[in-house]
């Protein structure tokens, strides 16, 4: 970590070092992690999504990854997920990707299939599986699918185990969604291979007890995710980056995947065409009595990210309670990760990247949207003059420490 001698402010330069991958250049290493907002009807982008995600581009994020977007209707988590299973969903997505690009962020999207964890209520209704009471209100549950007929937890629906033909159809649906994502203008396409969703559920012995080509030993459990990766890579133009979010550990008391298993899968994933491994954890079970979540300390996936980077040689993204610019820069400088993703921190402060830059740089407003920057520069000068004159700032947001 370098320090500016004049004022001893830390200089988190690594965070602001551009990164070029295939046809994209991230202006900085801070991205917005995919976060479901459950605001879509029929999978369609709404004004809400444009404003919600557009704020992060205004706020200087190098990469904005659109929330888990279903590749087919039964792969939605809830009735209100975004989707890319239909050409009718292209226009809204195109508007979104164009807007993000126009404001300096690389437009990314996470493609997803919730598998046996599909058909649930929104988190503000406790995220429980839909039931007859929801059906009475017009939000009926739907049949869920997985590698084996094993529910995600007590009181969760029994998934239909996909047969070989259905698996082939599913691989094609991933590829079709990826084709649409690229056509809409997304330049970073992530596959949601974590949190117990369909791809993860094929990989883990907790949820996959098949005895055919798609289950049994570790290599067979990898087969479906690797087929999806190859099909998606083939569907994407060369200049589009392919990312894959893993759960680095299953986080379950008995029998789940550990870091060694996931690192081995990640090596195969990279060989099959993945450019970026995005490091998350857990989610294979919805049974709280066997769930052993990774402790939520600061940067709680950093050790996993570091290992995955060392063992795959891939570009690695890390997410999980990254809140501070110095901390974020250190993760990059120390070789834990190449990209830091922030979720809730960005919800709290969509201008996090601009604020991070201001914490060490003098070109305080050069990187802001000019309509904001041209007003905020003079405002900052006025605030400093008042502070020098000993005038007490009026609000807690204008304390000298924040200037
Ligand atoms: C509201 C919300 C929605 C989320 N939706 C997704 C999602 O769509 N896909 C995903 O992979 N992770 C999702 N996550 C997990 C985040 O991407 C992120 O990994 C997690 O919040 C930890 O990062 P943080 O501490 O910076 O928030 C979600 C998290 C939150 C809080």
From TrEMBL:
Q: Which cofactor does it need?
A: FMN
- NADP as a keyword? yes
Which parts of the sequence belong to the NADH:flavin oxidoreductase/NADH oxidase N-terminal domain? Answer: 15-359
List UniProt keywords, sorted A-Z. Flavoprotein, FMN, NADP, Oxidoreductase
GO MF terms here are: FMN binding; NADP binding; NADPH dehydrogenase activity
Enumerate the Pfam families for this protein.
Oxidored_FMN
NADP: is it a keyword of this entry?
A: yes
Which SUPFAM superfamilies has this protein been placed in?
FMN-linked oxidoreductases
What InterPro entries does UniProt report for this protein, alphabetically?
Aldolase_TIM, OxRdtase_FMN_N, YqjM-like
The protein depicted here goes by the name 2,4-dienoyl-CoA reductase-like NADH-dependent reductase (Old Yellow Enzyme family)
Originating species: Glaciibacter psychrotolerans
